[in-house]
Amino acid sequence: MNLVTISLCMILKNEEDVIGRCLDSVQDLVDEINIIDTGSTDQTKEIVSHYTNRIFDFTWIDDFAAARNFAFKQATQDYILWLDADDILRVQDQELLDLLKRNLAPSVDAVSMHYNLTFDYQGNVSHSLRRNRLVKRSNHFQWHGAVHEYLAVGGNILQSEISVTHLGKPHEPEHSDRNLRIYEQQIAKGITFTPRDLFYYANECFDHRLYQKAIRYYNQFLDTEKGWSEDCISACGKVADAHLELQEKNKAVEFVLKSFSYDTPRAENCCRLGLIHLTHGEIEQAVFWYDLATKLDHKNIQDKSGFINNSCYTWVPHVQLCVCYDRLGKYRLAKEHNDKAKAYDPQNPAILHNEDYLNTILWEKKK
């Protein structure tokens, strides 16, 4: 059996708090580690030197794709794996990658992996998506985009069950100004944004509470009619949230409904509609949308590499239906849905509180 060989390629700057954790999780699975440093002033290089002597300097030019393409050029093995410094492979995923390495057919051009982004209080994955993580070096796949860069791949893509887990960095601000600054420098230079740039610039505006600007650029993105359908669905949800922040309910509803024109309804947007109606006392309408969310399966979305909020496909719509039926005085239905929510999340404090409350009410009604 001929095992494929793997080059790990990473770009780093001032990652002393997390890089050791990342490399510890993957060093035994790769045949080469290439580190591209873009200007560290801490102990990053010293820490990395314990894992590899393949450390390269790259002058930062506000262009993530340029840095990643430079990193890929340093690779010498069959396949290239890319990670960020605050990512790890958990033990079970290390085992899956080892198995993949032993069995990967040479005809595979790229391997897609889950990317676990956030977690609930029990450590279960609450938000995830897919990314092409392992690519054949000889295909010379390229990165594109100065910010929120993406790797353009083609050919035979294997959808694996391996997950990369994003742990984040200690004391990291929720939203830094770096990406917003790069985009606004590009605007000042007269650079024409691609549809993808419009989408991600709108995301940056939204994250920085620039809601009017976010709405404008999301609409410009949607008007191109050239965006990836998953991004269009996400944009509609974000526009709806921005309108809600601006107290514009009808506009919010309009854009959630617009998301359904791009694909089958997503539970995230059904729950959005449910919450809008619930907040405005429109309980029957809220019940309709939360009930629909309970009937949707996230597996199809996972296969499309879209962003998934797992809670909207599991316990959230049930616990919200519990709230709705309680307000309608239908306490047995409320308990039925709270029990379903508990089956997904047995230790959730809100669900346990609902359970005690409903048991008391139903007991009193028996008297």
TrEMBL record:
Residues 7-127 form the Glycosyltransferase 2-like domain. GO terms for molecular function: transferase activity. Keywords: Transferase. This is Glycosyltransferase involved in cell wall biosynthesis.
